[in-house]
Amino acid sequence: MRRSVAAVVLALVVALLVAVPLLARALDQPFYVTLFGRIMIWAIAALSLNLILGYGGMVSFGHAAYLGVGVYTVGILSAHGIENGYVQWPLAIAASALVGLGSAMLVTTAGRRYVEWLVRLVSRVSDPLVAAALRARPLGLRREIDRRG
Predict the structure, then answer these.
(1) pTM
(2) Please, where are the H alpha helices in the chain?
(3) What is each CA distance from 34 to 30, 41, 62, in whole angstroms?
């Protein structure tokens, strides 16, 4: 009984999400597609944090910084006319992975001897990335976003 109710609710949610672009076009309101796109991006970030904290039992040390690296990669590529998702996604994943690899190498080499400083070190690596992303206006991206609306 519970399984069938959950399946029906899931099917309704998926049907509503599929209907959003159609309804937005019918109502001539493209804002809703952008709004639901942003909601889905934040949902992915929340689900990844839930996976790390809940299932993995690990403390998240700035996974938002790596999400931000990927987001800025896609944004910069879009601002320069590369709007193909099959190009953007692998490059965003690669950029985030490279930043993660660099911070992991820094943390693991320093963390072997000083375990108590590990938390502080990881925060020192991820916090400047988040702060720089909040302040940055890379390659005229902000003007491009303002111009597109």
Answers:
(1) 0.51
(2) 2-26, 31-50, 63-79, 85-111, 118-135, 141-148
(3) 7, 11, 26
Position 92 scores a pLDDT of: 94
The span from the CA of 89 to the CA of 85, in Å, is: 6
Q: Which residue in this structure is represented by tokens 């108590």? A: 116
Distances (CA, A) of 147 to 63, 71, 140, 143: 30, 19, 11, 6
Q: Is the pLDDT of residue 115 over 80?
A: no
CA 66 and chain centroid, separation: 8
Q: Are the beta carbons of 36 and 20 closer than 8 angstroms?
A: yes
Tokens at 88, concatenated? 């953007």
CB 80 within 8 A of CB 143: no
Higher pLDDT, 58 or 33: 33
User: Mean pLDDT, to the nearest integer, of 112-134?
Assistant: 64
Helices 2-26 and 31-50: crossing angle, nearest 10°?
150
Cα–Cα distance for residue pair 22/138, rounded to 1 Å: 33
